[in-house]
């Protein structure tokens, strides 16, 4: 949270995300310098993503096809990971993710994590931990 004086008070911190993940048996997936993580909350947003991705492909090559998985909340919510052929900065990542239809609140908070909190990692996904064979 940011107070009127512009001071960061902690609610945007990644510490909260890591605690949430540990408490709820999630792993945190962080994009590398070449990846975008798009959080899609509806079928309409997914269709918008596919449309916007065609534009991105015209001007910025991507490697292979996007990896698309249901989010931890299940379909129609999805997580899409797009791998670019060149590195992007955190701000470029946030801009491209928003333009591709990623959850706008998420992307705005990511922007503030970079600009206000100076977080080294602004973008992340919560994914269910993979079950190891034989575990109950």
Helix/strand order, N-terminal first: HEEHEEHHE
Provide the β-strand percentage band.
Answer: 15-25%
Query: Which class best fits the helix and strand makeup?
Result: alpha+beta
- Percent helix: 25-40%
CATH architecture call of the domain at 33-127: 2-Layer Sandwich
Instruction: Write out the strand line-up for the largest beta sheet, numbering strands in chain order.
Output: 2-4-3
**Named CATH topology of the domain at 33-127:** Alpha-Beta Plaits
Secondary structure blueprint with pairings:
Layout: H1 14-23, E1 26-29, E2 35-40, H2 43-59, E3 67-70, E4 78-83, H3 90-99, H4 104-115, E5 125-128
Antiparallel strand pairs: 1-5, 2-4, 3-4
Word description of this protein:
18% of the residues are buried. With 136 residues, the protein is of the alpha+beta class. It has a domain of 95 residues: Alpha-Beta Plaits (2-Layer Sandwich), CATH 3.30.70. The strands form 2 sheets. A 3-stranded antiparallel beta sheet has the order 2-4-3.
Structure characteristics:
Alpha-Beta Plaits, 4 helices, 136 residues, disordered N terminus
What does this entry show, briefly?
This protein has 136 residues and is an alpha+beta fold.
């Amino acid at each position: 949270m940011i107070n009127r004086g512009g001071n960061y008070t902690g609610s945007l911190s990644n510490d909260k995300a890591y605690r949430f993940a540990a408490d709820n048996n999630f792993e945190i997936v962080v994009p590398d310098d070449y990846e975008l993580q798009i959080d899609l909350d509806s079928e309409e947003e997914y269709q918008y993503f596919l449309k916007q991705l065609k534009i991105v492909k015209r001007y910025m090559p991507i490697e292979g096809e996007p990896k698309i998985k249901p989010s931890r909340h299940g379909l129609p919510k999805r997580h899409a990971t797009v791998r670019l052929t060149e590195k992007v900065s955190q701000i470029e990542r946030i801009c491209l993710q928003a333009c591709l239809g990623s959850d706008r609140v998420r992307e705005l908070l990511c922007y503030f994590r970079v600009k206000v909190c100076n977080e080294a990692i602004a973008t992340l996904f919560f994914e269910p931990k993979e079950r190891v064979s034989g575990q109950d």
